[in-house]
Amino acid sequence: MIPKLFQVKPLEGYRLLLEYSNGEKRILDTSYWLEKPMYQELKNVTLFNTVKISGITVMWVNGQDIAPDDLYEYSLPVAVSVII
Question: Which one Pfam family would you cite for this protein (predicted)?
Answer without folding.
Answer: DUF2442
